[in-house]
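About this split. The held-out portion is used to measure sequence recovery: a designer receives only the structure tokens and must propose an amino acid at every position. Recovery is the fraction of positions where the proposal matches the reference. Here is one held-out target exactly as it appears in the evaluation file.
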């Protein structure tokens, strides 16, 4: 009877496999990702060997072994990107993946070998390496359309545009941080610029003064001639 129970227990272990817990670790491409794993060390007798491998923990050892340690130092390492940076003698056997890539995503097994039959500590990790999120601010384009009043000519619009472009940076108003807020504001600006351009023609005809001067000289010469004739 006892042998029958023992045989059933052994078969149950063989077919079901060891009980393994699973955790999820999420990292970003290009960053160092740490997959945690540890065991309790009360004294030097508790220090033991362990391994990391890809895929789930098998019935013994590690599948696709990445790294081995005897508890004191690393004894086997298949890739320099996989490191044990923790204090091994204190039971910190966390795996660090340096400069992670999307290909590093998958299941990892941490197996700590304790003394005794079927006494190993098993821990599966599902590692997900995602692309880094890059936030780019899209440029904002402000478009302002000015509509002229009925009866206004395209020549006025051309004058306003030409006058606005001729303003230097030192003469520009300091409070203007963007386009006009409404149609009324835009019309006010247009009216001011047009009023400024209206006063310019008086300064662009200096020949009127020349004509007046010539006329005055002619009258003076006529008067002078009459005075000489009479005398």
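Reference sequence for scoring:
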């Amino acid at each position: 009877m006892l042998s029958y129970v023992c045989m059933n227990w052994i078969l149950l272990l063989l077919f079901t496999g060891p009980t393994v817990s699973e955790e999820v670790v999420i990292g970003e491409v290009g960053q160092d990702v740490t997959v945690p794993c540890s065991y309790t060390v009360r004294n030097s007798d508790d220090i033991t060997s362990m391994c990391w491998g890809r895929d789930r923990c098998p019935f013994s050892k590690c599948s696709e072994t990445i790294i081995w340690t005897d508890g004191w130092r690393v004894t086997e390492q298949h890739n320099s990107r996989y490191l044990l940076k923790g204090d091994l003698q204190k039971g910190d056997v966390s795996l660090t993946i340096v400069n992670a890539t999307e290909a590093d995503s998958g299941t990892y097994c941490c197996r700590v070998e304790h003394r005794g039959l079927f006494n190993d500590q098993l821990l599966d990790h599902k590692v997900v390496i995602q692309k880094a999120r890059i936030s780019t601010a899209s440029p904002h384009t402000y478009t302002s359309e000015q509509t002229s009043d009925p009866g206004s000519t395209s020549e006025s619009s051309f004058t306003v545009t030409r006058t606005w472009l001729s303003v230097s940076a030192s003469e520009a108003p300091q409070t203007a941080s963007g386009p006009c807020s409404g149609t009324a504001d835009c019309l006010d600006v247009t009216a001011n610029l047009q009023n400024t351009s209206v006063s310019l023609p008086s300064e662009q005809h200096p020949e009127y003064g020349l004509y007046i001067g010539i006329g005055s000289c002619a009258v003076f010469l006529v008067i002078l001639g009459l005075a000489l004739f009479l005398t």
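Annotator remark: The chain is about 30% helix and 20% strand.
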